[in-house]
Each structure stands twice: as C-alpha cells, then as structure tokens.
Amino acid sequence: MVWSGPSVVLNLCGGDQAFINISVPRSPGVLTMIVDVLERHSVDVVTVQISSDQSRSLFTIHTRVDRERGMFMDTATSEEIHQLAVSEMMLPHLPAAAENEIDDVVYVDARTGKRKVRDRKEAGAS
Fold it and tell me: pTM for this structure?
C-alpha cells in the first residue's frame, strides 16, 4: 500500500517493513527529527539514503517496526504505526500558510489500485 502527503510517500512492503521518502527544504536537523520520530514509535531504521542539492534534501528510509518494544504493539498494525510516524514528520516542515491549505492526504491502495483520500487531521490521529 502506498500512502502519500505533502512532500512524503510511505510505501508499505508487507510484514512490518516500509520505505519512507521525504523531500524537504534543506535545513540542519531534519535527519535527527526523522530518526527521533521513528524512535518514539518503535520503528527501526534499516537503511537511509540522502540526496540533496542547494535547496532540497531527499531522504529514502527503509524501516521496520520493532514488535519487541513500544506501546500498543499487540493491537496497532504496522500500517497504523508507520502512518502516525510519517504524519508527525510532515507537519514541522510545511510553511504556516500551506499547512492551513492542506486538508487531505491521498494514498493508493496497492491491492486495489484505487486512490483513497483521508482527512489530514484524521490521518495524524490514527
């Protein structure tokens, strides 16, 4: 399943693994913020690839949910854990005006190929 929002794409690979692609304006501390969010949600980083130019950075992160630690690991799905973590990564890098304009998150269900739209606030709360 693929889930996307402003400047971020989450590709769930089955099991507890996923790939997260994030494109943000180049600034110090972004990788630290990403790893901190993943750590809070008990998501391990398998690999990271970073590409950048003068103005933007692109992070491609291979992750895996660590079922041995973290809250709600018996009840939350890998999809829910990854979506919550990614929704927290998206918000800090949106300009204030753009943040108010973006209401929906669009994702594609890989099984059906259908686009689905979810309210951004709902996506961040699930």
Answer: 0.69
Distance CA 114, CA 107 (A): 8
Q: Where are the domains of the chain?
A: 2-125
> Three-state SS for 79?
helix
Specify whether domain 2-125 bears CATH 3.30.70.260: yes
- pLDDT tens sequence across 71-123: 666 778 888 889 889 988 875 544 433 343 344 555 555 556 555 555 545 54
Burial annotation 83-114 (CB, 10 A radius, 16+ → b, else e)? bbbbbbbbeebbeeeeeeeeeebebbeeeeee
Please state the φ and ψ torsions of residue 89, each to the nearest 5 degrees: -75, -30
